[in-house]
Amino acid sequence: MGSTNDKLILYTNRRCPWAHRAHIVLDELKIPFEEVTIDLDTPRTAEYLAINPRGLVPALDYNGEIIIESAIVANFLANAYPSHLLPPSNAPGGALQRARIDLFVDAFISKFQGSLFKLFTANTDEEIDAVVEAAVGAVLKEVEPKLADAKPFFGGSDKITQAEVLTGSFAIRLVTLTKHEVYPSKLATALAEKAPNFWKWVEAVSAHPSVNGIFEEEAIVEGTKARIAKMKAAAK
Ligand SMILES: N[C@@H](CCC(=O)N[C@@H](CS)C(=O)NCC(=O)O)C(=O)O
């Protein structure tokens, strides 16, 4: 169980949506921590590779023990510091609600977010339209129905939950990148029109201070543009 004596160090980079998950959970739980920024534009130092041999962010140092992988870090923190984010698994209906959250996150990440990676290499209008159609289709099939009772957050909650901890960084990027035409704006228009539960939820999540508090809009927009240009150049 987490305590006020815990010493936490988060190795992170605020540009990274996976690391952003750890920031959301730490902010929501009001856990003090030390933030160490890892430069992702240069090779990882031997010092950082000793902390995380995978060389990725985030990594969490929890009282001297290293935990890696964003979902594992975020779930560990939500379990160690019980809160509104996750019901206890032994509470009535708790295990089931946790399974619903897991299914929602799985659908969002593997079906919807996964389909967006193709935007990075889509060149023609036809290719872009095909990605938008697949992404909207994935939302309608697997995500929209799971948000029918969102109020405005998952499972009828008025506070964010672990579902938003694990998807919020991608929701805010969806709003921001379509607004700046880094992702096609027709993706936002189609989602708002065809998947109203989803779009209402996306907007509520993006407006939440635990989600937008560390979000550096300009840096994310410019960084994503640069990444897309690099991937398109490599694909030529
Ligand atoms: N599965 C990992 C993914 C983390 C990840 O891909 N982080 C990226 C930044 S967004 C990274 O550290 N990239 C460094 C590199 O590839 O050199 C997680 O969920 O923590």
Helix percentage: 55-70%
Q: What fraction strand?
A: 5-15%
Overall mean confidence score, pLDDT:
96
Task: Give the CATH level 1 class of the largest domain.
Answer: Mainly Alpha
Ligand list: glutathione
Q: Regions with pLDDT < 50 over 5+ consecutive residues?
A: none
Distance between the termini: 52 Å
Radius of gyration from the alpha-carbon trace, in angstroms: 18 Å
What would you note in describing this structure?
With 236 residues, the chain is α+β, with helices and mostly antiparallel strands. 57% of the residues lie in helices and 7% in strands. The chain has ten helices and four strands, in the order βαβαββαααααααα. It has helices at residues 17-29, 46-51, 70-80, 94-116, 125-143, 162-179, 185-194, 196-206, 209-212, 217-235, and strands at residues 8-12, 34-37, 59-62, 65-68. A four-stranded mixed beta sheet has the order 2-1-3-4, with helices on one face. α7 (185-194) packs across α8 (196-206). It is globular. The mean pLDDT is 96. The structure holds glutathione.
Short description:
The chain is an alpha+beta fold and 236 residues long. It has helices spanning 17-29, 46-51, 70-80, 94-116, 125-143, 162-179, 185-194, 196-206, 209-212, 217-235, and strands at residues 8-12, 34-37, 59-62, 65-68.
Secondary-structure topology with pairs:
Elements: E1 8-12, H1 17-29, E2 34-37, H2 46-51, E3 59-62, E4 65-68, H3 70-80, H4 94-116, H5 125-143, H6 162-179, H7 185-194, H8 196-206, H9 209-212, H10 217-235
Parallel strand pairs: 1-2
Antiparallel strand pairs: 1-3, 3-4
Helix pairs in contact: 1-3, 1-6, 4-5, 4-6, 5-7, 6-7, 6-8, 7-8
The structure holds glutathione.
Residues 16, 18, 40, 55-58, 69-71 line the site of glutathione (GSH).
